[in-house]
Specification:
Organism: Toxocara canis (Canine roundworm)
Strand content: under 5%
Number of strands: 0
Shape: flat
Number of domains: 1
Protein name: MRG domain-containing protein
């Protein structure tokens, strides 16, 4: 999952995906929070 997360961050930054959609940004931030809870 870590590799997928890194790749997702890379492509989101490169292509500015979700940069204009607050709802999608919130979903992604929620995913990060849940992922950190599971892996920590």
């Amino acid at each position: 999952l870590y590799v997928h997360r890194v790749m997702l961050c890379y492509f989101m930054d490169k292509y500015k995906v979700f940069s204009d959609c607050a709802e999608e940004q919130a979903k992604y931030k929620n995913f990060i929070a849940e992922y950190e809870k599971i892996t920590m």
